[in-house]
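Customer escalation, tier 2.

The customer says the design service returned an amino acid string that "doesn't look like it belongs to this structure." They asked us to rerun it and document both sides in this ticket. The original C-alpha cells are below, unchanged.
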C-alpha cells in the first residue's frame, strides 16, 4: 500500500535524520559527535514511529494541547497496536535515554558501546520499517555509509563488566575522575531501558550507585537488570547486525528512589508519570461509569496488581492512581467480550467480591 501524504513526509524526515546520524558517526571530527549521533538517531526513530501511526490513521495530536504526541506515547502505541516488540522498543528507549542525558547534561559513552547501540538501532529500525511500511533502509541509504568502526562490539556482559570495574577504579581516592565515573554510571543506567519501560536517571540514582560501588557491591546487586541481557552479532563491517536478547537472570528487586538502604540501581522511577490516571479518568477512557469501572477493576484484580495501581501517600491522604497497564488490561477484557452485566452483578461496589 502506498504511503499516505503525511506518512511519506514523516518517513522522509526519519531517513534524513538517519543519514545525518550515519555521516556524523563516520566523521573524522570528534567535536560534538556523540551528542549529534544520539540526537539524530532518536529523531529518526520518533519520525518512523509517527509515520507508522499516521499510515494507520492514528491521531497524532493531543486533543487538549494541540501539539503532536511525544516519543514515549508513540512507543507505547506502536508496541501495543502496531507490531513493535518489547526488545525492539527497548533498543529505541536506550537511545532516547542516552540522548536525553547527552542533551540536558552529559554522559560518557565509550566508542564500542556507542557502536553497539547504533548498530542495534539500525537493525531494529530497518526491521520495523520493512514490517510496518514495506520499505527497506538500503533503498534510501547505501550500506557503504552505515556506521563502520575499528572497535566492533564485544560481548554485552564483557562490556558491562568492564565499565563497572572502570567506574570503581575512577572512584578510588586520589584519582580525581569522579565526574567521568558518574557520567559512565549514567550510560549503564540508560542501558537498563532494554528491559524496562520506566527510565529516568536522577542524581539520587547516581549517588546511590556511587556509594554502592565505593563500598564494594557486586555488579549483580547494583545492576541486576543488565544481567538479563545478551547480544548476538551477525555479519561484519557495513552489513553487521546487532540483536539484543533476554536471558534468565537474578530476580530484580525494586526500591524507592529515596530509599536510604537501597544499594541497587533498580527502582520504579517517576511513579507519578507511570501511574498518571485517577479512577475517574480511567473510567472515562473506557467509556464506563465510575461504579462500573470499579466493578471491572475488582473482577480483573487491577487494584491488587502493583503494575496497574499505586497508592500515593501525602501525609494522611491516600490517592489511588492507575497506569496504562490497567487501561490496557481492562480494554482487552472488554474487547474479548467479557460479560459486563455479570461483572456488575458480582463485583459492583457494595457487593461481596466473587459472589
Amino acid at each position: 500500500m502506498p504511503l499516505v501524504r503525511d506518512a511519506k513526509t514523516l518517513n522522509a524526515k526519519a531517513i534524513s535524520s538517519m543519514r545525518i546520524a550515519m555521516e556524523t558517526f563516520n566523521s573524522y571530527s570528534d567535536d560534538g559527535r556523540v551528542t549529534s549521533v544520539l540526537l539524530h538517531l532518536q529523531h529518526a526513530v520518533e519520525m518512523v514511529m509517527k509515520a507508522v501511526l499516521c499510515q494507520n490513521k492514528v491521531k497524532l495530536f493531543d486533543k487538549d494541547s494541540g501539539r503532536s504526541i511525544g516519543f514515549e506515547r508513540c512507543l507505547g502505541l506502536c508496541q501495543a497496536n502496531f507490531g513493535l516488540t518489547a526488545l525492539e522498543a527497548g533498543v529505541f528507549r536506550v537511545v532516547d535515554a542516552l540522548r536525553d542525558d547527552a542533551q540536558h547534561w552529559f554522559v560518557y559513552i565509550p566508542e564500542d558501546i556507542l557502536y553497539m547501540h547504533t548498530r542495534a538501532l539500525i537493525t531494529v529500525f530497518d526491521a520495523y520499517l520493512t514490517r510496518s511500511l514495506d520499505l527497506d533502509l538500503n533503498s534510501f541509504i547505501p550500506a557503504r555509509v552505515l556506521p563502520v568502526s575499528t572497535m566492533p562490539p564485544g560481548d554485552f556482559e564483557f562490556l558491562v563488566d568492564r565499565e563497572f570495574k572502570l567506574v570503581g577504579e575512577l572512584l578510588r581516592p586520589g584519582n580525581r575522575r569522579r565526574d567521568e565515573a558518574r557520567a559512565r554510571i549514567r550510560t549503564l543506567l540508560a542501558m537498563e531501558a532494554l528491559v524496562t519501560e520506566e527510565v529516568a536517571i536522577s542524581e539520587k540514582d547516581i549517588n546511590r550507585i556511587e556509594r554502592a560501588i565505593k563500598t564494594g557491591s557486586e555488579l549483580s546487586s547494583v545492576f541486576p537488570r543488565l544481567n538479563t541481557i545478551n547480544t548476538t552479532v551477525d555479519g561484519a563491517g557495513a552489513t553487521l547486525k546487532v540483536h539484543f536478547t533476554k536471558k534468565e537472570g537474578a530476580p530484580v528487586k525494586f526500591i524507592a528512589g529515596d530509599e536510604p538502604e537501597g544499594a541497587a540501581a533498580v527502582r520504579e522511577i517517576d511513579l507519578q508519570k507511570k501511574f498518571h490516571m485517577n479512577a475517574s479518568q480511567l473510567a472515562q477512557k473506557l467509556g464506563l461509569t465510575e461504579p462500573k469501572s470499579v466493578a471491572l477493576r475488582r473482577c480483573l484484580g487491577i487494584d491488587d496488581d502493583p503494575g496497574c495501581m499505586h497508592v500515593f501517600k501525602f501525609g494522611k491522604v491516600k490517592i489511588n492512581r492507575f497506569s496504562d497497564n490497567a487501561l490496557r488490561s481492562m480494554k482487552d477484557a472488554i474487547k474479548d467480550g467479557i460479560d459486563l452485566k455479570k461483572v456488575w452483578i458480582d463485583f459492583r461496589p457494595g457487593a461481596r467480591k466473587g459472589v
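Tier 2 assessment: The sequence is consistent with the input. Residues 275-347 form a domain with the Multidrug-efflux Transporter Regulator; Chain: A; Domain 2 fold (CATH 1.10.1660.10). The CA atoms of residues 25 and 34 lie 8 Å apart. Sent an explanation to the customer and offered a walkthrough call.
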